[in-house]
């Protein structure tokens, strides 16, 4: 009955998913499995599996995850294994988006990011907020410190496994907040400009208008392409930015280029990312200042990041949102 | 309370409300006859979307006026403010409409505050003159969010909006839901309507399929006006006691705040952030207490789920 009413109110064909999540994975089979499970209808709460699809785009590597795991997940999963000569996820992202059938496309650029259990439900709800709604999920790292710092004090696969075992993940996905800290780009919180979202949805119309992710970002891991996309979305006047402040994506350690490298090697890589952004956009990256609407529920576990966000805003006081 | 009403109506006008135009909403003002009426001319100059009705009323209850107002409304979403002394912040209308797009059956709660904080209800020296001085220190007409600087949570919901909610003085819900509950219950004919506001909120918020949507960045701000619940006078305690008695009789002795998890919606300006922080702290304390007792966090949600399933 409720479904029929919603279909009538929003004039939609309920047989077609509203939301398409595109997840990129490369050389991270164990982390990707956890991420994909966190997007399954078994883990996501209060959501009709027919309302969303997950497109898994795996770039070829010597450590592939493969199709089998995906085929056992509850929900609309589609898996694609693809050859990729470049060290960047951009072609995979754009290819995945081209295959998507939803009215809204969400990109999880790094398949190592697990989601909290209300991401899909709230993302679907939030798409109705305005004609053109971009829905951003804040980013976190598992561990007390961001992983690019934590590795200096020995953080690695074993530390992370112990943390996840300690909260009996995936029993209650909101407990991830208890063992996490904000990602560097989400550190400013909900009331100051952030650099990116590692899980962001836009209407297909906006995706097409922007031409998807910028293919000129060819650096390792796409360099700053995700930040670039976030900024280009926010810079569109017609887009309402919604932040799911009570939800999150949680980065698992996987030896990636920006979170798993150290010292001079990391500095070199990051500088190359910054420089490529500048060469494409004419200046170094600055986060967009569009004010987000908060949307969603807050579990006990996520409330400490409300406190964190208010403290940051109070200290910064640079932008009176 | 003409001065308070005029200030309230200014905050509801399209010149003050942001992100909406006069064509997006209407304001139906119903004033019961008294010796101290609002200037109809003032109301009309606020915009073509503000419709004013004065009516004769023998009782001391606003209930007949509320039901008269329902008959005049043309919108599919109704915002009800039983006490015209509540000024609102600038995106209340915009976000109520947003919630109505996002949800099939939204119950939109604009958190309630008191101008002057606790002084309004506890300090005998607090009066209209004092309050106007407080307001004169703000640029509230230009930026209504400054009202947060001189306010505290209203006593009705002093535990914040991340706790079970007792009542709401600026409440939006679809017209069809108000119709389903028979509009405003005419048994509430005590002075000021008694506890009709609490009754109405519980009726709506416990309907199946509804979503409680709280606007954490917005607020409705009660101005001092010597009403039943906010002024100090001899019979206050006795009247409040009669209100409670009636409410409990109607609900079979089981009336309590509605324990449903709210969806938060809207931007939170820095003026409103201290109340979100306070709400967060109080909620964390409550969650810890309930966990230690082994109790559910949102019991009415569970009850509704069970009812829907059966």
Please explain how this structure is put together.
The complex is a heterodimer of chains A (321) and B (310). Chain A has 321 residues and is α/β, with parallel strands linked by helices. Chain A is 33% helix and 18% strand. In chain A, the strands form two sheets. Chain A has an eight-stranded mixed β-sheet, with helices on both faces. In chain A, strands 5-11-7-8 form a four-stranded mixed β-sheet. Chain A starts with a helix and ends in a 5-residue tail after the last helix. By secondary structure, chain B is of the alpha/beta class. Helices cover 36% and strands 15% of the residues of chain B. Chain B contains eleven helices and eleven strands. Chain B has a five-stranded mixed β-sheet with strand order 3-8-5-9-11, with helices on both faces. In chain B, strands 4-10-6-7 form a four-stranded mixed β-sheet. The radius of gyration of chain B is 19 Å and the shape is globular. Chain B starts with a helix and ends with a helix. The mean pLDDT of chain B is 93. The A-B interface holds A 2, 5-6, 9, 125-126, 128-130, 190-191, 245-246, 291-298, 300, 303-304, 306-307, 310, 313-314, 317, 320-321 and B 98, 101-104, 162, 209, 216-217, 261-270, 273-274, 276-277, 280-281, 283-284, 287-288, 291, 297. Strand 12 of chain A pairs antiparallel with strand 11 (263-266) of chain B.
